[in-house]
């Protein structure tokens, strides 16, 4: 089971390429490294099941989540492609793609970005992000967010 992940929200012009690489390093390459570690033995014994926790944002991008969504789209493409070739080895890949989940992870992320300045982003975009996106996102998580237990079930 792979559940490693980092979140990121904000205007894309304020995200450095180094930060984007860090997000992909965890969200995408973390999955790749885990699969590479377990796959040879699963193929050898011709049995196994890999479970990858992804995100609904690997299926549908959402405003101000572009880099995070891109990392999850990469995970989706990787796992979907790999799943087909692994059938001959009786190895399966399942992807869990939860939507909003109420955890401290999301709460800390929202608190952090609400205090950020977003250098490089224009005032109109920053205003929209802080005045429209953040309150709407917090409302969605508080009213529609699942508990971690519900996701696990």
TrEMBL record:
Where does the sequence pass through the membrane? none
Q: Would you say which domain of life the source belongs to? A: Eukaryota
The UniProt family comment states: Belongs to the short-chain dehydrogenases/reductases (SDR) family.
Biological process, per Gene Ontology = retinol metabolic process
Q: Which Pfam families does this one have?
A: adh_short
What does the entry list under GO cellular component?
cytosol
Query: Has the keyword Ubl conjugation been applied to this entry?
Result: no
Q: Which UniProt keywords apply?
A: Oxidoreductase
Q: Which InterPro entries match?
A: NAD(P)-bd_dom_sf (IPR036291), Sc_DH/Rdtase_CS (IPR020904), SDR_fam (IPR002347)
Q: Which GO terms describe its molecular function?
A: all-trans-retinol dehydrogenase (NAD+) activity
Question: What PANTHER family does the annotation carry?
Answer: RETINOL DEHYDROGENASE 8, RETINOL DEHYDROGENASE-RELATED
* Keyword Nucleus appears in the UniProt entry: no
Name the record gives this protein: RDH8 dehydrogenase
């Amino acid at each position: 089971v792979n559940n490693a992940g980092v979140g990121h929200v904000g205007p894309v012009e304020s995200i450095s390429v180094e930060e984007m690489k860090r997000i992909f390093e965890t969200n995408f390459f973390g999955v790749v490294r885990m699969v590479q570690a377990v796959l040879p033995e699963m193929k050898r014994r011709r049995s196994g099941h890999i479970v990858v926790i992804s995100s609904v944002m690997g299926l549908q991008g959402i405003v101000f989540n572009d880099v995070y969504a891109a990392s999850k789209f990469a995970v989706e493409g990787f796992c979907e492609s790999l799943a087909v070739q692994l059938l001959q080895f009786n190895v399966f890949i399942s992807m869990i793609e939860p939507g909003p989940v109420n955890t401290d992870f999301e709460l800390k992320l929202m608190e952090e970005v609400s205090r950020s300045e977003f250098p490089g982003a224009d005032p109109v975009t920053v205003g929209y992000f802080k005045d429209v996106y953040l309150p709407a996102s917090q409302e969605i998580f508080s009213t529609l967010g699942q508990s971690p237990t519900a996701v696990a079930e």
